[in-house]
Amino acid sequence: MTFLLQNLINALQWGSFYALIALGYSMVYGVLMLFNFAHGDVFMVGAYIGFFVSSGLLAVAALGFVALPTGVMLALILVLTLIIAMFLNTFVGMAVERIGYRPLRAAPRASAAITGLMIGIILETGNLALFGAQRRSFPTLIETATFQFAGVSVTNKKIMIVLVSLLLMLALHIFVRRTKWGMAMRAMAFDYVVVPLMGVPINLIALLTFGLGSALAAAAGILYGVAYPVLDPYMGILFGWKAFVAAILGGRGSVLGAGLAGFLLGFIEIFVAAIFPSTMRDLIAFSIILLILTVRPHGFFGEPYSARLRL
Amino acid sequence: MLLSVENLSVSYGRIKALHGVSFQVDEGEIVCIIGANGAGKSTTLRAISRLIPAESGSQMTYMGHDLLAYPADKVVSQLGISHVPEGRRLFDNLTVMENLKLACFARSDGRQIERDMERVFSIFSRLEERKSQKAGTLSGGEQQMLAMGRALMSARKVMLLDEPSMGLAPLLMKDVFSALKEINQEGTTILLVEQNARMALQFAQRGYVLESGNLVLEGASANLLANPEVKKAYLGG
């Protein structure tokens, strides 16, 4: 029981990263019917932006203009880092859409997929060229505190990561459900062609969709940096692919599905690693997923023919 | 003259759909374009709405503005030309109310939106009863009403209608056309394309006949209805 609970908590944290990234894949697929294969690297860029923003804020704080208790100051820096990096990464995502994908709207889907892979490589190698090959260590913004109850240990970081992720997903849900922008996204997912007849500028909605996904990816990057404070230019590749698998598992275009499947993937990986040698983790985890997809090729919430974006 | 189309040519790949079509619509008019399936009727409307590109040499002027300088969404939001597409094309995954609200996306005149919404509900009272239902659950007639209501919410200077009678029982068709008459009397100019030539010519003041991408006849509806060629080809003898 303790074993189960302990791993459940670990899995929730691990799944949060996948879920946040998978949402970006799913939204873009739902609205524009393309998989943005650069998304894993947009996550990496988000983590780096978070690194630079938080380092900068820490340096400013060290000047001592504002006197706050250390804990409060660090928490404030974390919140500011999240907000600023999410905001900045929005523009990274919008640039990917504008430069990479918009010229290819009418091109075969395979061209867009290849473009995505190339943009990903450019982001990785661009980072390498600009900032060098050394790994960066994400600054400590939370002093780890461990709580014990019923034999299970939980850190304040894990609680924060899971809560922030869930909060962001809720915010996305409300945005897509309650605002006219979200309504336009849902309309585009259903019938792309006639949306302009509603007076809706579809290029703006495309930018918005990429921007939202990238903001969530930046949040995932920062939360990841808080939990595992080592960043390198290639950190987004495997993570991106796994989150992509989660998006497929959830059902293409299903935002709820992407979120749930992200957590499911986290659960499978953590539990496999807890039972089997960790070298076998991905092998077994992805064999399980392959099996699920054999039975449900459209994923959990996907259907072969219907609105692509279910929110 | 409100809308003037000169020498409009459109191609889909290597297939030419319109071979230099020219026509005019005056303010307040109801004008129809009739023709067989595949004659280029929908293509004409789509080109006006800028959903598909017109070939060079084509000219379209609306109230002195060069239509070709506007992207599709601005044709609606800035020029005030709405378009009810063929087959309604509602957003089935949105509710009736959401479909109507989406059509106001670019509008910021909140008060007027409310008045327009009331007006739409007074013309199409069925829509108000069903406003929180998903559009996909409506009957064919209700869907056509929503498609027209949506167009009215998006813009109301000109309404382009693509086959409004399609798939409707004769009684419903009458309802739809009497609603359109009402909309026209409130100042909306109407350009409709129809396969149902008799219905369209009875409703419109003027008509054009489109045949494989060329306008071959034009005139007052009464004259077209009496024209032997039109009778033979489009009115069943």
List the topology elements:
The complex is a heterodimer of chains A (311) and B (237).
Chain A: H1 2-32, H2 39-62, H3 70-101, H4 109-131, E1 136-137, E2 146-149, E3 152-155, H5 156-178, H6 180-190, H7 202-227, E4 230-231, H8 235-250, H9 255-275, H10 281-295
Antiparallel strand pairs in A: 1-4, 2-3
Helix pairs in contact in A: 1-5, 1-7, 1-8, 1-9, 2-3, 2-4, 2-7, 2-8, 3-7, 5-6, 5-7, 6-7, 8-9, 9-10
Chain B: E1 3-12, E2 15-25, E3 30-35, H1 41-48, E4 59-62, E5 65-66, H2 72-77, E6 81-84, H3 96-102, H4 110-123, H5 125-129, H6 140-154, E7 158-162, H7 170-185, E8 189-194, H8 197-203, E9 206-211, E10 214-220, H9 221-226, H10 228-234
Parallel strand pairs in B: 3-8, 3-9, 6-7, 7-8
Antiparallel strand pairs in B: 1-2, 1-4, 4-5, 9-10
Helix pairs in contact in B: 3-6
Strand order of the largest sheet of chain B: 6-7-8-3-9-10
Oligomer type: heterodimer
Percent of residues in beta strands of chain A: under 5%
Rg of chain B: 17 Å
Q: Which overall shape of chain A is indicated by the principal axes computed on the Cα atoms? A: globular
- Helix/strand class of chain A: mainly alpha
Supply the number of helical segments of chain A: 10
Count of DSSP E strands of chain B? 10
Based on secondary structure, the structural category of chain B is alpha/beta
Largest sheet composition of chain B: 6 strands, mixed
The helix-strand sequence of chain B is: EEEHEEHEHHHHEHEHEEHH
Share in helix of chain A:
over 70%
Low-confidence runs of chain B (pLDDT<50, min 5 residues)?
Answer: none
Summed over residues and divided by their number, the pLDDT of chain B gives a mean of 94
**Count of DSSP-assigned helices of chain B:** 10
Largest interface: A-B, 19 and 29 residues
- Report, as a whole number of angstroms, the end-to-end distance of chain B: 34 Å
Structure commentary:
- The complex is a heterodimer of chains A (311) and B (237).
- Chain A has 311 residues and is mainly alpha-helical.
- Chain A has helices at 2-32, 39-62, 70-101, 109-131, 156-178, 180-190, 202-227, 235-250, 255-275, 281-295, and strands spanning 136-137, 146-149, 152-155, 230-231.
- Chain A is built from 10 helices and 4 strands; from the N terminus they run ααααβββαααβααα.
- Chain B is an alpha/beta fold and 237 residues long.
- Helices cover 38% and strands 26% of the residues of chain B.
- In chain B, strands 6-7-8-3-9-10 form a 6-stranded mixed sheet, sandwiched between helices. In chain B, strands 2-1-4-5 form a 4-stranded antiparallel sheet, covered by helices on one side.
- The A-B interface holds A 180, 183-184, 186-187, 189-191, 193-194, 196-202, 307, 310 and B 49-51, 71-74, 76-77, 82-83, 85, 89, 91-94, 98, 101-107, 150-151, 154-155.
